Amino acid sequence: MLVELKDIDKTYDRKSVLKNISLTIDTQEIIAILGGNGVGKSTLLRIIAGMERPSSGKIIFRNKKMNIGYVPERFPKNIRFTPEEYLNYTAKISGMPESIMNKSIPDLLKRFKLEQFNNQWVMNLSKGNIQKVGIIQAIIKRPDLLILDEPLSGLDSLAQQELLEIIKELKKEGTTILLTYHESNLFHKVIDTTYRVENGVLTKETDIVKEPIKLLEVEYLNESHVEKWDEIISIERKKDKLLLYVQAKDSDKILYRLLQLQGSIIRVVTVEAPEEDNR
Ligand SMILES: Nc1ncnc2c1ncn2[C@@H]1O[C@H](COP(=O)(O)OP(=O)(O)OP(=O)(O)O)[C@@H](O)[C@H]1O
After folding, report:
1. Minimal CB count within 10 Å: which of 15, 110, 131, 169?
2. Domains, the chain, with CATH or none
3. Whose CA is nearest to atom 6 of ligand 1?
């Protein structure tokens, strides 16, 4: 057990938002908290991150000095530093050794394609790029627990893919990850446990059957045509080919659309159950 929530209630101005929530988070687990708008997902994440107190209930952390990385839904916008200055500054404050800082900050700026903005203030970047700075800030310290509130919002598909890869790497290194998202299949393969918040109550989704996945390999097709299709779990580019992963039940529909777009289908294969993999 890394964190345990016991009977957490949260009330704002007599409005009950979270009711009697109990949850155990294990080491190296990736947990998704899903639910409609305004159901209390962000409130729950803020409570676990220690940014807000519950009205009643208890949170027990495995150790008192747990390193938590938290990326809010909206990262503060008014930062008058360049991304690198800001990340160096916050890493220094959190006591990170310079040798690690000097390697991991330029590395992550590059992975998220932010090096090109190194002569601009964070406040002048786009929403997605500001979000990336927030994500980097939370992950450079290799947290025990990483909390991401809607990390996909505002990120383009390349950055989303990069984030997915980073999440897999962090898990391998021992990080536990808690996140929320809307309408995306991107995380489907890496999520260990999904919970839903509804009317303030948290329930575990136990009956999600992991469906077989098909890989569709296509040529002569622009990624922008397909990246908005909800049925696509993930997209990879390999030279001039696109590798599309879809649930088996959606593959005929997607193949039909690809042919209409004059894409050339190279192969269609059923890949094994969509568990954590080493692609
Ligand atoms: N500081 C606050 N003061 C008063 N009410 C609040 C506060 N923070 C959240 N709320 C209320 O609590 C409820 C849950 O909000 P929260 O942001 O946690 O929901 P959410 O599930 O994250 O929503 P979304 O998906 O739209 O981000 C909302 O009705 C919101 O108005």
Report:
1. 15
2. 3-204 (3.40.50.300), 213-271 (3.30.70)
3. 12
Residues with CB under 6 A from ligand 1: 12, 17, 35, 37-43, 73
Detail the DSSP E strand segments found in 27-169.
30-34, 56-61, 68-71, 145-149
Look-up of token digits 């990390």: 151
Q: 214-225 pLDDT, tens per residue?
A: 899 999 888 888
ipTM here: 0.96
Q: Partners of 216 in the beta sheet?
A: 244, 268
How far, in Å, from the CA of 60 to the mean position of ligand 1? 23
Both structure tokens of 102:
């000097």
- Ligand 1 centroid – CA 190 distance (Å): 27
Dihedral, 153, 204, 189, 70 alpha carbons, nearest 10: 40
Q: What is the pTM of this model?
A: 0.76
Sign of CA dihedral 124, 125, 128, 134: negative
Sign of CA dihedral 104, 174, 193, 41: negative
